[in-house]
Every structure is written in structure tokens, then in C-alpha cells.
């Protein structure tokens, strides 16, 4: 008696795209992490050249440097981003009774924090050291916690807005604010001499990977 084989249903296009993005981001993140971990000379050399140039600018342009310190220490600080996340989670519970989504949002942001702190401890990359520093920071350099946290929070909030179908004006404004925040926080960390450029790139890549994986979990989570 012949038994007909049963094939699993094909994955929808959106799910396939998410899987491809996750794979690409994971590959790029792993490659950069490995190069930083082994202190690959060509990459370290580029990092050093960028750091020396931007630090020279930071010393010369004290007004810009002061503005960047305010932005990085208050507006784009990881704790500011976490407070924003908590506020959105509270709003989801209060106004939309979306407890599952609120828990998902907080858990994804917490995962990003755990990943970045774990990698900092494992890689233990020294931060730039200057005879005339314009700012200071603690803990290891790779990946940039500011860059990664901003990417995770802005990416997840953008996806929630898209998921709930907000108006075009609000969507465009949110995208602009997110892009400026994520790019801006990376620029300020390098300008202030507390991170190498690859720390910021690593934070962006890992943050984007957390967002893509979180979205995949939310989409596949049974209602």
C-alpha cells in the first residue's frame, strides 16, 4: 500500500525574508566579532586612523563636542532608551491590553543588554586612550552599548508602528527620528573618543540581529 508523503507547507515570503536577514546579520556579526577578537591588524589600523582623526576634531571643535556629550549622555543614553521601552510597554498594557506584546518588547530589549554585556566581558577590548580626553566611559569597548541599545529599541518600536498600521506622517517622522538616533549615537561615541568605529558597527549589526530575531518570534508566537 502506497503512503502519500506529506510535505510541510511552504513558508510565507515575509518569513523567508526574515530568515535571510537573520542569517546575513548573524554572519556579518560573527565575522566582525572574530576579526576584533584576534585584533586583525588591517582592521585595527583603520580603527586607529579614524579615532585619531575624529579625536583631533573633537578637541578643536569644543562646541560640537559639548553638544555631542549632551546627546550621548542624556538623549541617546541606554537608560533613556530603556525608560522609553518601559513607557511603551506600559502604554501597550494600559491602552491596548497587549500584555503579550509588552512582555515581548521588554524581553527583547533585555536580551540585547545581556548579549552586549556578555560580549564585552568575553572580548574585553580596550577603549581608546588619549592624553587629552574629551569624555570618559567604563567597561570594555566591543560592542558599543549605546549603538546596540539604540538599534534594538528604535528597530522594535518602528516594527510595532508598522505592525499596527500608523498613518503615513507619523511613520515618516518615526523613521526619521530612528535613523538620526541610531546613526547619531554611533557618530557621537566615535567623536568623543570612547569607542572605535568597529565597536559602533558591531553594535549596529548585533542590534539589528536582535530586532530581526525578535520580530520572527513575535510573528510565529501563537495568538
TrEMBL record:
What positions does the domain Phosphatidic acid phosphatase type 2/haloperoxidase occupy?
A: 98-215
Keyword Protein transport appears in the UniProt entry: no
The positions making up the signal sequence are none
Q: Which InterPro entries match?
A: PAP2/HPO (IPR000326), PAP2/HPO_sf (IPR036938)
SMART domains found in the cross-reference section: acidPPc
Transmembrane region(s)? 21-41, 79-94, 101-119, 139-161, 173-194, 200-219
Keywords of this entry: Membrane, Transmembrane, Transmembrane helix
What PANTHER family does the entry give? AT30094P, SPHINGOSINE-1-PHOSPHATE PHOSPHOHYDROLASE
Q: What is this protein called?
A: Putative Integral membrane protein
Amino acid at each position: 500500500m502506497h503512503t502519500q508523503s506529506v510535505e510541510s507547507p511552504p513558508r510565507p515570503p515575509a518569513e523567508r525574508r526574515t530568515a535571510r536577514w537573520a542569517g546575513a546579520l548573524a554572519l556579518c556579526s560573527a565575522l566582525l566579532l572574530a576579526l576584533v577578537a584576534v585584533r586583525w591588524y588591517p582592521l585595527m589600523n583603520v580603527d586607529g586612523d579614524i579615532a585619531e582623526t575624529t579625536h583631533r576634531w573633537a578637541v578643536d571643535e569644543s562646541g560640537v563636542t559639548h553638544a555631542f556629550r549632551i546627546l550621548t549622555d542624556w538623549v541617546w543614553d541606554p537608560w533613556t532608551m530603556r525608560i522609553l521601552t518601559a513607557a511603551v510597554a506600559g502604554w501597550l498594557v494600559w491602552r491596548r491590553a497587549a500584555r503579550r506584546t509588552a512582555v515581548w518588547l521588554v524581553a527583547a530589549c533585555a536580551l540585547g543588554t545581556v548579549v552586549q554585556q556578555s560580549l564585552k566581558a568575553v572580548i574585553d577590548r580596550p577603549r581608546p586612550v588619549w592624553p587629552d580626553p574629551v569624555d570618559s566611559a567604563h567597561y570594555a569597548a566591543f560592542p558599543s552599548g549605546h549603538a546596540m541599545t539604540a538599534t534594538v529599541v528604535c528597530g522594535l518600536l518602528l516594527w510595532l508602528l508598522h505592525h499596527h498600521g500608523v498613518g503615513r506622517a507619523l511613520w515618516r517622522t518615526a523613521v526619521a527620528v530612528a535613523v538620526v538616533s541610531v546613526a547619531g549615537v554611533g557618530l557621537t561615541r566615535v567623536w568623543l573618543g570612547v569607542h572605535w568605529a568597529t565597536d559602533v558597527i558591531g553594535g549596529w549589526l548585533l542590534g539589528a540581529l536582535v530586532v530581526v530575531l525578535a520580530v520572527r518570534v513575535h510573528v510565529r508566537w501563537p495568538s
